[in-house]
Write a structure and sequence with these properties.
Length: 125
């Protein structure tokens, strides 16, 4: 059997062009392609990406626009957050303000429906 350490040492001394030439000669001699393992690895990549995604459990309720009924929206914000009048008014006037952070899906949907009923434009993230 060949001395593997000696072969490794010789291969380490090859330039990039010499290594490419060696690959071609081995492919011809053995009737294989060095590109096949690369293609198989690339094909396995998309399959791994098809794994089920975990369902999100925490949501942020964000006001995009208070709409025409700002007083109603302020009242809902105060109910949901226990903020004072000034803080709730400021939140309703700030696009992208987080009304609730890290709440469950049911609470987020409930808050969204209440804010939308008051005339606000809301998104969950």
């Amino acid at each position: 059997m060949a001395d593997l350490e000696k072969i490794v040492e010789q291969l380490s001394g090859l330039s990039v062009l010499e290594a490419a030439e060696l690959v071609k000669k081995l492919e011809e001699k053995w009737g294989v392609s060095a590109a096949a393992p690369v293609a198989a690895a690339a094909a396995a990549g998309p399959a791994a990406a098809a794994e089920p995604v975990e369902e999100k459990t925490e949501f942020d309720v964000i006001i995009k626009d208070a709409g025409p009924k700002k007083i109603d929206v302020i009242k809902v914000i105060r109910t949901l957050t226990s903020l004072g009048l000034v803080e709730a008014k400021t939140m309703s006037e700030t696009a992208g303000a987080k009304v609730l952070t890290g709440v469950g899906k049911e609470a987020a949907n409930d808050a969204k429906s209440k804010l939308e009923a008051a005339g606000a434009s809301v998104e969950l993230k």
